[in-house]
Write a structure and sequence with these properties.
Blueprint: H1 10-22, E1 25-30, H2 40-49, E2 53-59, H3 64-74, E3 83-89, H4 92-101, E4 114-119, E5 125-130, E6 135-138, H5 142-151, H6 165-174, E7 179-183, E8 202-206, E9 225-229, E10 248-252, E11 286-290, E12 309-313, E13 332-336
Parallel strand pairs: 7-8, 8-9, 9-10, 10-11, 11-12, 12-13
Antiparallel strand pairs: 1-3, 1-4, 2-3, 4-5, 5-6
Helix pairs in contact: 1-4
Length: 343
C-alpha cells in the first residue's frame, strides 16, 4: 500500500518498530566515495549502525546486471541505481538508532544514507522508500493497512475505501497529512471542507470535470505546491493571493482522466484571465498555466521577484510584455500559442 506521505514524529517511530518486527534486515544506500568526504552526521550514523552491519554490496555506475541480480536475489524493489548498499540486521538496538537519528522517512537523504528499506526473511519487501521520487510503500494487504491506520495516527495509506472522497478527506484530516493527490472522483468542485487539511503543503488534483475552486482551498496557509489538472476551469479566484507560502502553481486545462475524451477548442476554454493577485504570492518560484484562452499577462506578475520559471503554454498570448525583463530571478520563459498535441 502506498503512503500518501511519509510518517513523522511518533508515527515514524511506530512504523520503524513495525518494520523491525516484520523484517530480517534493512538496507541503506551510500555513495561510492571515501568516508572522509561524507558529512559528519552521515559518518556518525554509519558508525552507530556498524555493529549491525551484515554485508555491503557495491554497484558501479552503469552496472545494470548488478542491480538486476540484487533485485532478483532479494525479490526487492530497493535496488534501482548504482551505489553502495549496506545491509543491517533488524533488532531492537538497530531500530533505536533509526529512530534517534531521523524524524521521518524523507530524512534519509543527503545528510544521511539514502532510502531506508526493509526486507523480509527469505526475501520480499516490507517497506520501500525512494525519497527523491516521494515514493513510500508498506507491503501489506488492504485489510492490514486499514487496521494499521486505526492504530497509528500519521500512517496515511492509500486504501480501497478512499475511492469515496469523503472517506479520503476524513482520513487525510485524521492523519494530518501534508501531501495529498485527488483523482478519479468525477467531481466538478472540490468540497469546501478541503480547508480542514491545515497541514497540507502539497496538493495535486487530477479531475477532468473539475470546474470551480472553492474559497476553502485558499485557507491552506502552509500550501507550497498546488497542481490542478482538468478539462476546463471557470477562473482562478483572486483569493489565491492568500497562499503566501506557495512556491509552485500549476494549472493545466485540456486534461483528461479517462478514455474517449475530446478536448474543447482552445477558444472555448473558460479560463481567459490571470488575476493580478497572483503577483502577491511572494514565495512563488514556478508558474505554469497550460491550454487556456488567456490573452495577456497582467502587469501584477512583475511583483513576483522570486519567480524562476514562467510557462504559459497553448494560450492566446501573442507577445511577451516588456516588464518580464525586469524580473531578475526569471531564468526560463515559455509563452507559446501552439498546442503541443496539435497535428
Amino acid at each position: 500500500m502506498r503512503m500518501y506521505t511519509d510518517p513523522r514524529g511518533k508515527a515514524y517511530k511506530q512504523v520503524i518498530d513495525l518494520a523491525i518486527q516484520n523484517s530480517e534486515c534493512f538496507v541503506l544506500r551510500s555513495h561510492n566515495i571515501s568516508a572522509d568526504c561524507l558529512p559528519a552526521e552521515y559518518r556518525s550514523v554509519l558508525q552507530a549502525l556498524e555493529p549491525y552491519l551484515l554485508r555491503t554490496v557495491t554497484v558501479n555506475d552503469g552496472d545494470y546486471d548488478g542491480i538486476t541480480e540484487l533485485s532478483d536475489t532479494y525479490h526487492s524493489q530497493a535496488f534501482y541505481t548504482e551505489g553502495k548498499y549496506l545491509f543491517y540486521r533488524c533488532c531492537e538496538e538497530s531500530g533505536e538508532v533509526l529512530k534517534r537519528v531521523a524524524n521521518r522517512l524523507s530524512d534519509w537523504i543527503r545528510k544521511l544514507p539514502e532510502d531506508l528499506c526493509f526486507i523480509k526473511e527469505g526475501g520480499g519487501d516490507y517497506l520501500i522508500s525512494v525519497v527523491h521520487e516521494h515514493i513510500y510503500i508498506l507491503c501489506v494487504t488492504n485489510e492490514e493497512a486499514t487496521e494499521l491506520m486505526e492504530q497509528i495516527t500519521g500512517l496515511f495509506l492509500d486504501i480501497e475505501a478512499h475511492r469515496d472522497l469523503d472517506r479520503l478527506l476524513d482520513d487525510a484530516v485524521k492523519h494530518k497529512t501534508d501531501w495529498l493527490y485527488i483523482s478519479g472522483h468525477e467531481i466538478s468542485e472540490l468540497p469546501d471542507r478541503i480547508r480542514e487539511l491545515t497541514e497540507l503543503r502539497y496538493l495535486a488534483v487530477f479531475e477532468q470535470d473539475l470546474y470551480r475552486l472553492p474559497e476553502g482551498l485558499f485557507e491552506l496557509s502552509k500550501l507550497e505546491h498546488l497542481d490542478i489538472m482538468t478539462a476546463d476551469l471557470e477562473r482562478i479566484p483572486a483569493s489565491i493571493s492568500k497562499l503566501k507560502n506557495l512556491k509552485i502553481l500549476s494549472i493545466r486545462c485540456g486534461s483528461s482522466d479517462r478514455t474517449g475524451f475530446k478536448v474543447k477548442p482552445i477558444d472555448e476554454i473558460s479560463l481567459n484571465y490571470i488575476p493580478p493577485e497572483i503577483g502577491e504570492l511572494e514565495q512563488l518560484e514556478r508558474l505554469t498555466i497550460q491550454y487556456t484562452s488567456i490573452k495577456e499577462i497582467p502587469p501584477g506578475l512583475e511583483k513576483l521577484q522570486r519567480l524562476k520559471v514562467l510557462e504559459l503554454r497553448s494560450c492566446k498570448i501573442d507577445r511577451e510584455p516588456a516588464f518580464l525583463k525586469n524580473m531578475k530571478e526569471l531564468k526560463y520563459i515559455d509563452v507559446a500559442q501552439k498546442w503541443l498535441w496539435e497535428s
